[in-house]
Amino acid sequence: MREEIAYALTTPYSLRKSRTGGIIARLLSRTGLDLVAGRIFAPSAELASSYAEMVITHQNARHQKTQELIRNYVLAHFSPDLAGRRARCLMLLFKGEAAVAKVREVAGAIATERTSGETVRDTYGDYIVDEKGIVRHFEPAILVGQDPEEVKAHLELWARYSDADGSNLDKVVQFPPKSNVEQTLVLLKPDNFRFPNSRPGGMIDLFSRTGLFIIAFRVLMLSVAQAEELYRPVLGLLTEILRKPTGTRAREILSRELDLDLGAEVEKELGALLGPIQARFNWESIVEYMCGRRPSETKNEDRLNPGREKCIALVYQGVDAVSKIRSVLGPTDPKKAPLGSIRREFGQTIMINSAHASDSVENAQREMRIVQVWENDFKAEVEKYFSHR
Q1: C-alpha–C-alpha distance, residues 169 and 151, integer Å
Q2: How far apart are alpha carbons 159 and 118 in whole angstroms?
Q3: 3-state secondary structure (DSSP) of residue 316
Q4: Where does a domain end: 302, 324, 342?
Q5: CATH number, domain at 107?
Q6: Does residue 146 share a domain with residue 20?
Q7: Chain-wide mean pLDDT for the chain?
């Protein structure tokens, strides 16, 4: 069966009501598809209007009624308001066999008399009609393409607007004057993507407890160079932490194996010699975990190439964003993390601990620059896929 590309567009209401995590969890775990890109949009009137008109295909009277319902919804909820304020939505791009049908099936029907909780719309959508059959409340939760040709037209439209309407969203959300508004980076680490599962969505769902706003979303594979730069401060920290215990352990081993009475001064020298070596080895293991390659085993010409491990980068914005995110994340060691924290729920070890979050506003800016959170992978994926069709 031929590989396809498909999209799921979370509505502004779903994003605003922090339903994003649950929707992503459902899509990842039940489609089995590869999430290859994601981008937060703040649609302009032109994008919203163009997308709304594309919904109308007039296949038959029954479909036309549903299409007009969606068209009117898009115009009302994706367009800027009268004051020019734009709503945020999240475009997710999936790839795999029968991707369009799989995404459509998990999304669920627009209107149904019975709900089972199986589909995204069963859980997060609303379709309420009165006794006369008039729709009184409609919330589709996500929008998807119905067939490959429709998906192609929709994605090419969103790709055209992806630079203008998908970048520099730090001014989209409005805050009261003099609020301590911060931005912070979250990285969902590679252990969450070993197989199709709900973990990435589950973590985003827990981060939503902060009440912060997602203003950037990027699927990426860190290069060795990026992982090295991201974790460079950790190398110095490990060197300091491991110097003394490494010296002590080396002294104990040498004393036992060589039957030597080595003093404290020798222990200090052993620590100064071997501590940085031990730190470097552990640090390279962290880099390898994040990108799939050890720096010492990577050729110079390959250091800038994408690695083998997938991550999701998110930027959260809001009042005291750094401390709020780190509070929900929990300490580095999952065993010491409080109940209900992300690392207690999803972490395994000090290194395989589910997610990374910036520890200061300054580091957040540094880390956002390293992982290039505003990079437009969505447009690149769309253009690459359809250029070969």
Answers
A1: 25
A2: 30
A3: strand
A4: 302
A5: 3.30.70.141
A6: yes
A7: 92
pLDDT value of residue 62: 62
Distance separating alpha carbons of residues 364 and 96, to the nearest angstrom: 34
Domain boundary among 252, 274, 302: 302
Rounded-to-integer distance, Cα 141 and Cα 106, Å: 12
Each residue's pLDDT tens digit, 69-113: 999 999 999 999 999 999 999 999 999 999 999 999 999 988 765
Residue 331 in domain: no
Is residue 94 situated within a structural domain? yes
**How many whole angstroms from its chain centre is CA 220?**
9
**Alpha carbons 216 and 143: distance in angstroms, whole number:** 20
Virtual CA dihedral for 210, 118, 58, 43, nearest 10 degrees?
10
Beta bridge partners of 146: none
Domain co-membership, 19 together with 120: yes
Is residue 350 included in any domain, yes or no? no
Q: Which range of residues forms the domain containing residue 265?
A: 227-302
Specify if 321 maps to a domain. no
Q: What is the pLDDT of residues 326-379, one digit of tens each?
A: 999 999 899 999 999 999 999 998 888 999 999 999 999 999 999 999 999 999
Contact indicator for 21, 208 with CB cutoff of 8 Å: yes
pLDDT confidence of residue 114: 58
Residue appearing with tokens 């009302």: 76
Instruction: Please report how the helices 264-291 and 232-258 are oriented relative to each other, as an axis angle in degrees rounded to 10.
Output: 130
Contact between 309 and 289 (Cβ < 8 Å) = yes
**Lookup: tokens for 381:** 């994926």
